[in-house]
Amino acid sequence: QVQLVESGGGFVQTGGSLTLTCAASGTIYSSSLMAWYRQPPGKERELVAAVRGGATNVANSVKGRFTISRDNAKTVSLQMNSLKPDDTATYYCNAQVRQQTYFGRGTQVTVSS
User: Fold this and answer.
1) Which helix (H) or strand (E) holds 76?
2) pLDDT(71) > 90
3) By C-alpha distance, which of 55, 71, 81, 57 is closest to 21?
4) How many C-beta neighbours within 10 Å does residue 25 have?
């Protein structure tokens, strides 16, 4: 069983920065995929960025502004720069371990115009 806890969300003005952190507990490996999803108000959840091993993938909508990093096997961060109002969403940490998918409870990011 894997549990994921997000932190670092908050309220920021357009152009500001935030760093989200996800701490995992339970059995998770350095080779396990970890990712960040977000769900804007009234919209579906979407993939923002993912990391597995040394490879990263970032959605086109945030490319050049967001960076995902794997600090260790159980911690993943999302550095968000040049934030826009469209980035307002609940951000969820995700992990895939042995064909099981886990999500955290989410952290709210609000960007004011």
Assistant:
1) strand 75-80
2) no
3) 71
4) 11
